[in-house]
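thread: overnight batch results

M.L. [08:02]
morning all. the overnight job finished for the chain we discussed friday. pasting input first so we're all looking at the same thing
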Amino acid sequence: MRAGSLVALAPVVAMACTLALPQAAQGADYLRGSQIEQPVEPPPMFSSDRFDWSGFYFGGGAGMSDTKFKPSKGVGELVNYAYRNTAIGQQNNLADLVGNLTEKQDSGATYFGFLGYNYLFGDVILGFEADYTRSDHSYGLRDYISREYARPGVATDRQGISIASNQGATLNDYATARLRMGWAYGRLMPYMTLGGAVGRFNTVSEIQTDTQFRVNAGLPNESIQQIDGYPLTVGNRKKNVYAFGLAAGAGVDWALTDNLFLRAEYQIIRFAEVEGTTVTVNTGRVAAALKF
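M.L. [08:03]
and the structure it wrote out:
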């Protein structure tokens, strides 16, 4: 290219550089801002943005339950009933012989399903939920005791009694209906529950008694005299006995998507006495559910 041509192009090159420099500076500023000043968006599951918890949902899960069975004085009452028409029963509180039954417990996995509906009031959630749990936790207590008493009015005679007791229960399954109150923090929703429960049990509460006189006890002519009406069995075995109770709990729901959430929850249920046994169930459980 000739020197004259280069001289003629010089003003054009200078003008092009002048126009390009501001654009280049703006591009550099844009790159710096995108790398430094642009905030990093949190994953959706941890987002604190508002999330619509209202609507119908259902799901299921599993837990670990500790079920405590506390026997009452029911077996003792059966003993007093068995000897209510005898002199020895009127003079002694025979219920004390079997009144020290110890508390038992059974632990293991339980499985449940649930459904409910949430109402949203700002960040406050009010709802209703029902669940059904399969349990099969149980206990059983068997005992045997015998005693001998002086026969009233006959110094040489003794009256011997023997009592075999059997107390037990199986919690087959139970259902609860509870009110829920929670607080929405984006996709996390901690909550508390309170309501009622009904449980289905198989129970046994019975005694087998026997009583005899030792006539001329300790003498050469000692003999045994059986008392009419004994041996005697008192009590019963029952299937599908229902007991009511109270249920309370606390937990947190975590929405993974708009229609799927996970749950971690603690629940306690206390049933009223059922055939001589009071039952308390403590459960920690996890679940997954679909929301519509």
